[in-house]
Amino acid sequence: MMLKLALWVGMMSVAAAVSAEEKPAAYHVSPMIQKDVDPVPGFMAVSTEATISGMEDALNDSFMPLVTAAQEAGVHFMGGPIFIYDGAMGDPDQPFTLTTGFPVAPGTEAVDGAVIEELPEARVASVYYTGPIEHLKEAYEALFPALFAAGLRPSGVSREVYLHWVDEDSPNNIIEVQAVLAE
Length: 183
Hints:
Layout: H1 2-22, E1 28-29, E2 33-37, E3 40-50, H2 55-73, E4 82-86, E5 96-103, E6 115-119, E7 122-130, H3 137-149, E8 154-164, E9 174-181
Antiparallel strand pairs: 1-7, 2-7, 3-5, 3-6, 4-5, 4-8, 7-9, 8-9
């Protein structure tokens, strides 16, 4: 009996070591692609000045109130949130304009503090990120070197299109990170 227990414990130790080495990454970033993105005719959004280091505060002060107001007003979103970073260049303390919002149906009325505008079409370089939010920076770290290596120029505007969201720790979140290209 003791030998069987010792063998079982030994096998479990080997299995744990092998599975730790073969365990898939907590996130995945796709190769970069270029594509044309259609306009979003109804984009209900709020804008604020933000910094990368102050993102949590910016989202709590602008995006979360938008979500709450839209829910209270019974607004139906036609897709997941889109975050637009205008002028964010990677410096954690450099101010930029953060616009956050949702696609909405034609005829939707804007909630207090929000506007409904058309999100224009764009030519983008993008990657698809799957995983928890803590590793999202890896998508940017893959996108921009690939973009430059392909001879493309970013416009200074990037977007995060939330295609599937579970929670901030989920390995099943899917986010498309887009760099709008300069013409």
